[in-house]
Structures are given as structure tokens and as C-alpha cells.
Amino acid sequence: MTQDTSSRQGDEAAARRLAGAFAPEAIDALLKDAKSAGTPIDGVDGLLNQLTKAVLERALQAEMTDHLGYDAGDPAGRGSGNSRNGRSTKTVSTRNGPVDIEVPRDRNGSFEPAIVPKRARRIGNIDDMILSLYSRGMTTRDIEAHLLEIYGVNASRELISNITDVVVDEIKAWQSRPLDEVYPILYVDGIRIRVKDNGVVTTKVAYLAIGVDVDGRKHALGCWIQDTEGAKFWQKVLSDLRNRGVRDILIACCDGLTGLPDAIHAIFPDTVVQTCVVHVIRNAMRFVSYGDRKKIVTGMKEIYTAPTLEAAELGLAAFDKQFGAQYPGAVDVWRNAWDEFVPFLDFPPELRKIVYTTNAIESINFQLRKITKNRGHFPDKDAAMKLLYLGLRNISSQRGGESGTGTHGWKVALNTLINLFPGRILF
């Protein structure tokens, strides 16, 4: 009999024994005994916890046997230089609640259990659960109450904070990871957050950059919490992207962010800066009464659907003539955004559909706002970045993982980009 055959037969025998242990009649007997004894199924003193305790303790005994090289009571252990030395008791938190277990000890103190490592007090992915709850916007106080109520696990707010701190190094790696050389499209937008700074709660903006790679996949390139105003801040952000390997950006789509266009042109001089048309429309609508919104939207449509710059200028003039006296603020929004709007008019329809709005990034920001609104304010920028990163990580896992999410109609748009920007897209 070969070694592979023997191993396979051993695995099959183990599988049969496991199947027998979980056979319906065996489970029925356990449930019947639990009912007779008045033992609940779940909970701290429930059947599931008793089974967990029995399995963990048996596994620890098996690990000890493997560590020493002989079974308990086996004469072969005499003179081996090490032996069993009683047990210690510890409580570990599991998804079914806290479990008290007895951990075997050896006389030399060299036993390092794997199933329940030394100093470990949580098993069953409790840490992962805390990170998951935290990334969905639950405060440390909420998580503490949730774990105690549902699982009977006492997890202090300090412990929860320490567990979530494990992502700090992950954030640093994410913020400094290498990027692609070329991103045909870059979207930039921000969300407002409240952060305590020098004892005073102030409003800051966390800006998110989403890059569309040559395959049409969207990636969160980075997140920056604003320290300074205007060009100095954006110079830092764009320099960061360049230092991480970005050589060229074809089109940058943003929403009238002060200093950003100048910073883009300074770092990436050949990039076309395109304002988000939807933002312009929304900003203009702030000056319009509810009853006039429909006709105002119709009037603005003549501007942003114009086939040429000349037609758009005529559309703006007509919009001003019709509504300028009543809503001068709406007209001023268009005039102030005009320099960053007009590049849009050079794009054919298949490309306009992709760059006319930052909705690709706004949908992410919407989800980030949901998880930050419960916080009131953050104690510092690091705490804010920790939650934003965990939120981004959670969103990414739902929306395509590390490979990002696709862009509808990308193949047609890519061919258009190659024609508009010859020699700048590398494969």
C-alpha cells in the first residue's frame, strides 16, 4: 500500500467518524438530553457553548500530546525531560458567548497552543466582527452594547479601539502603495466631517480620488483630510499621486474646488480639467424656487447638451435672457464655472456620458456619509481616517474588490480617448 493510498484511507476514515458524530440520531440525543436537563441551546450556559468547551479542551489536549510526543500516562514519557503539569483556567470570548476552558500546561513552560494561543481571549473571528461593525458606522459604545447583548461578550470601548487600530499599518501601506502610470480619468470629490483640533471641534473635508484605469476599472487612489486651504493642499495631493507612480492623467473631473485646477496643471500640465456638470446644475438650482425648477432645468439642458462651444454660448445667453432677471444667482453659477465647463463640449457623446458627472465618486461618498454621521465628531484626524478607510474597504469588497468596478460603455470611450489623446494611453 502506497503512502498516498494510506493517507487517503485515513482521511476517509476520519470523515466517516466526523459524519457519525454529526449524524441526526447523535444530534437528536444531545438535544433530548439538553431539554431534559433544562439546558438552553444557545447562550452562555447553552449546549453550543458546552460543545465548544469540550472541543477546545480536547483539541488542547491533542496539541499537548503532539508537543510532548506521548499520551497522558504513557510510560514512554518517563525521562523525556518534559511532562504535563496540570491545567490553568481562562475565559475566551466566542460568537456564542464567553466560554471557560482548562488549558493544559507542561513542566518546562514551552507549550504554545495554536487553537487558543497564549494571552488570546477572543476566538471565532470576534476581531473581524468588531471591524465589520465599526466599518458600518457603529460607534464603540454601540459595538460594546451589541456584543454584550447578543453574544454575552464584555468588550470595553478601549479594547474595541485597540482592535480597530490594527488597520493603522494597513492604512499607511494603502496610502503609499504604487499606482498605475496612466489614469485616463480622475474623479475628485469630498465629504465634510467634524474633527477636534487643538481642543476645538472644526469642520474639515475628506477628499477622495477615484482613478479609472485603462481597463475601465475604478480604484480609490487615496483619501486626504484637508489641513490647509486651496492650492497648497492640492499641490500636496497631486505630488503624492505623482510620487506613487502616476505619470499622466487625461481628464480630471471635479467640482469647482479652489486651487485644484491650478495644482493639476502644475503637476500634470497636459491634463484637461473638467467640472462636474451635475454639480453646476445643482448649484444653480439652489437659487430657484420649487415651482420654476422644471423650466429652469429645461433651459440649462440647452447649454450642456449643445454640440459646440458656440451653441453653448447661445444657450447661456438665452438662459440669461429668460431667467437672469429673476434668478441672477443661477446664471452666475454657470458663468463662474464656464472655463472648467467648456472642455466638456469638445468631447463626443460617448465620452460625455462618463465625464459629465462625478456620480461615480458621489455614490461612494454617500455611503461614507452614512457611516460618519453617527459620530458627531472625531477626536482627531487619525480616528476619522481609520473609519473612512474601513468604510472604503467594506465598500470595495461589495463593489468588485481590489480589481475595482467597471465603467459602462468603456470600450467605446477608450477608443475615443485614444483618438483625442494620441500616444498617451499605455497598455
TrEMBL record:
DNA-binding is among the record's keywords: yes
Keywords tagged on the record: DNA recombination, DNA-binding, Transposable element, Transposition
Region span, Disordered: 68-106
Function: Required for the transposition of the insertion element.
Protein family: Belongs to the transposase mutator family.
Protein name (database record): Mutator family transposase
Organism: Lentzea roselyniae
